[in-house]
Amino acid sequence: MIESLLLNLGSRDVLSAEEESRLRAIIVKDRYFAAGEDLVSEGSRPGYSTLLLDGFAARYKVMADGSRQITALHVAGDFVDLHAFPIKKMDHGIVALSSCHVAFADHADLRAITERMPHLTRLLWLDTLVDGAIHREWIVAMGRRSKRAHIAHLVCELFVRLQVVKRTRGASFQFPLTQIEMADVLGVSVVHLNKTLQALRREGVFTWENRTITIVDWERLQEIAEFDPGYLSISREPR
């Protein structure tokens, strides 16, 4: 059930048989969520952390006027709230953007890992550090990249992350977000998003049709985005 997590962690270092066995033992309960349901609610104090097995989810904040800002996208293999273990109270929500299959790891079991399995602890810690690195890239994109480059960067990032967990097919991947949700991610109006997408289509770097993104010109897309995947720490080395 947790193959996507094993692929994610295993892209950064080798997991021992004992570590893999321990993860399989503690992540056993699963549940399905429909699009639009909260996987984790703002203000909650979960006694477990949630692993996304399949689907797309988003971290988000809601403003006083009811507007929403998506601050992260999660894909298969992501612990969407591993940080809830030490933080305790969630200061944001996590919503399903598509039908999602998730599993849970009790915080008591995660605590036992931190006390007895230092290498696995470091890999799980790294998982939260990569979340932080992604947040920094998103802040840079919001503040300094053109919307054209911002969209290109997001497509590059998602393609690489989904490749790691074997959720791509050739140069294509499923992308179930609506244009309204995509506008939330980018912090722009739907009209502005449409104009930027049309410009990128004319450049022939990728297509977005029937909830599928297909990369047509990977080199050019990376050039537009100024994309360097180093922040994703996808390199297998001792941790």
Automatic annotation (TrEMBL):
Known Pfam families for this protein?
cNMP_binding, HTH_Crp_2
Q: Which SMART domains match?
A: HTH_CRP (SM00419)
Q: Name the source organism.
A: Rhizobium ruizarguesonis
InterPro entries found in the cross-reference section: cNMP-bd_dom, cNMP-bd_dom_sf, HTH_CRP, RmlC-like_jellyroll, WH-like_DNA-bd_sf, WH_DNA-bd_sf
Which SUPFAM superfamilies does its entry note?
cAMP-binding domain-like, Winged helix' DNA-binding domain
Organism phylogeny: Bacteria, Pseudomonadati, Pseudomonadota, Alphaproteobacteria, Hyphomicrobiales
Residue limits of the HTH crp-type domain? Answer: 145-219
Answer whether the UniProt record assigns the keyword Iron-sulfur to this protein: no
Keyword DNA-binding recorded: yes
Q: What is this protein called?
A: Crp/Fnr family transcriptional regulator
**UniProt entry keywords in alphabetical sequence:** DNA-binding, Transcription, Transcription regulation
